[in-house]
Specification:
Layout lengths: L2 E3 L4 E3 H21 L9 E15 L4 E6 L6 E2 L4 E5 L2 H50 L5 H48 L1 E3 L4 E6 L6 E2 L4 E15 L12 E6 L5 E10 L5 E6 L7 H6 L2 E6 L1
Antiparallel strand pairs: 1-2, 3-10, 3-14, 4-6, 4-9, 5-8, 6-7, 8-10, 10-13, 11-12, 11-14, 12-13
Helix pairs in contact: 2-3
Length: 296
């Protein structure tokens, strides 16, 4: 793009660039300050940004490994916000899972062996009882009775050993199950998650920082519970539902829509902000504690 220099009658690249920035400044000013248009009367009153919030605390003592969000970011219930250093825990968790798999396999094999021993013992006892009854009638020789008695005693010893192995395998399985459950609790505690839908309002955690269990790491401004408190003049006709513009006085002022949602006991009007749940509002929570409320 070129622009004509009227002093020389030639096109000047510098003049073109100046014209481009001038047009951009007019566009931005119009977009940002359009609520202040004097085409129709408006009122302007200063207000204070307030919100309902929930605290996010550390589930376990440890160092912060990762912080996944910034101030102003939208979050949903259950989203991962922070990860505490879980290096040793993750290794222990893998070991605990492997141990449980091995214990489950061992328990299955021990159960099969015990069931086979049960069947063998039932058969051996039944054969011995039948042989003894026949011996008492004189139908079989004593040698046959002694042989079946030995088979029964052998089956009993095998059953005792199989039962002991099963009980040991069951004990190992129970211990492995409890150990895995404990490791999973520790691992879950290493991930700090969002307790509610909303926006990150304050953030006191940083990567490498150390926190104790239960220590506050951030706060979440509850979605739909973000307001501006302001005191409109008595002559202003502000009723419930009155639409307003909220101007955040950040380095680049930003305009949000809102509406009158209620009054506080001290006479302040609460204007609820309409915020999109997918956008970041870093400037709003970091630098816009004081805002302007513009309304007709």
């Amino acid at each position: 793009m070129k622009s004509m220099d009227y002093n020389t009658g030639r096109y000047s690249m510098a003049a073109a660039i100046a014209g481009f920035f001038a047009a951009g400044l007019v566009f931005v000013s119009t977009a940002v300050f359009s609520p202040f248009s004097i085409d129709y009367p408006r009122h302007v009153v200063s207000g204070e940004l307030v919100w309902e919030h929930v605290a996010v605390t550390a589930g376990t003592t440890g160092d912060v490994d990762r912080v996944f969000v910034r101030i102003g970011d939208p979050v949903r219930t259950g989203d991962a916000l922070i990860r505490l250093d879980a290096g040793p825990s993750s290794v222990s968790l893998d070991d605990a899972r492997t141990r449980l798999v091995t214990a489950a396999e061992g328990l299955g094999e021990a159960k099969e062996s015990l069931e086979e021993a049960d069947d063998q013992l039932d058969y051996a006892r039944g054969r011995y009882n039948w042989t003894r009854s026949m011996y008492e009638r004189g139908a079989v020789a004593r040698m046959e009775l002694v042989r079946t008695e030995g088979e029964r005693e052998f089956a009993e010893r095998l059953h005792e050993r199989a039962l002991a192995e099963y009980e040991a395998a069951k004990h190992e399985y129970d211990e492995a199950t409890d150990s895995l459950a404990l490791m999973e609790l520790r691992f879950d505690a290493a991930f700090v998650t969002a307790p509610a839908d909303g926006f990150v309002a304050t953030l006191s955690a940083w990567e490498g920082g150390s926190f104790l269990r239960g220590e506050e790491m951030m706060t979440i401004a509850v979605a739909g519970e973000i307001f501006v408190r302001a005191f409109p003049p008595p002559e202003a006709d502000v009723g419930l539902g009155t639409d307003v513009w909220i101007v955040a006085m950040t380095p680049l002022p930003h305009v949000y829509s809102g509406y009158a949602a209620g009054c506080d006991p001290d006479g302040a009007v609460r204007f609820r902000l309409r915020l999109k749940a997918t956008e970041s509002y870093r400037g709003l929570f970091v630098m816009a504690q004081s805002v302007l409320v513009v309304y007709r």
